[in-house]
Specification:
Layout lengths: L7 E5 L5 H7 L8 E6 L3 H8 L10 H16 L3 E5 L14 E7 L4 E7 L7 H22 L1
């Protein structure tokens, strides 16, 4: 972020605030990490981001994309990163439901998803790292264009 002169704001659900915690451990981010919202659910998103939360049209991916856009706008950041909520566990499902991630810039919003599976002790950390990988890839892509 410092090298590219970009700023970042984050809205976390399925990472439990780990991204905000990690950035808070960096002594000098040169004002590049603008802040984070750790939301417990859609109600929290509505209160803090003026987002429509569960009323948003479409699937979880679209809701997370909208959250990333509103987070970016609310903080005035170059990049808005959103980590969607953990889906409810359903033992009857053959395949696990996905966790959604989104990264919003002024020009576009990119989303990705991953199955909600793995050891419970690792899921928040994995989600935080997957979300930060979106930022990493966007910054690398910005270097080549």
């Amino acid at each position: 972020l410092c090298e590219k002169g970009k700023t970042l704001a984050v809205c976390e659900q399925g990472s439990g605030g780990l991204i905000a915690h990690w950035f808070s451990q960096i002594e000098d981010t040169e004002g590049r990490f603008l802040g984070a919202i750790v939301a417990a659910g859609d109600e929290s998103l509505r209160c803090v981001l003026d987002a429509s939360g569960s009323q948003a049209p479409g699937d979880g991916r679209e809701k997370v994309a909208e959250t990333a856009r509103r987070c970016r706008e609310r903080f005035g950041a170059d990049l808005g990163l959103a980590v969607g909520p953990f889906p409810k566990f359903d033992a009857a499902r053959a395949d696990p439901e996905p966790v959604h991630f989104a990264l919003a810039t002024a020009a576009e919003t990119k989303t990705t998803s991953t199955p909600y599976t793995g050891h419970p002790a690792l899921l928040k950390t994995l989600n935080a790292k997957r979300a930060l990988n979106l930022v990493r890839l966007a910054l690398l892509d910005a270097a080549t264009t």
